[in-house]
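User: Hi! I'm working on a homework problem where we have to compare a predicted structure to a textbook description. Could you give me the structure for the chain below?
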Amino acid sequence: MLNFEFYNPTRIVFGQNKVAELARLVPQDARVLVLYGGGSARSTGTLAEVLAALGERTVFEFGGIEPNP
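Assistant: Happy to help. Predicted structure tokens:
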């Protein structure tokens, strides 16, 4: 087994109208991974809203994630 250290500081921003803050919170040169489950993120327009708020940032989408019972 290899020895290693993993440091992952995480900031979680949650609540109403927080998507509008993405442009301020995410650096312009960031590479963003957007994860989502079934179709609700897409069908409700939330995914489109998030992608629009991210603007010209490099975005990778990974959808269809199944819930873990």
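For your comparison, note the following. The mean pLDDT is 94. The radius of gyration is 15 Å. Good luck with the assignment!
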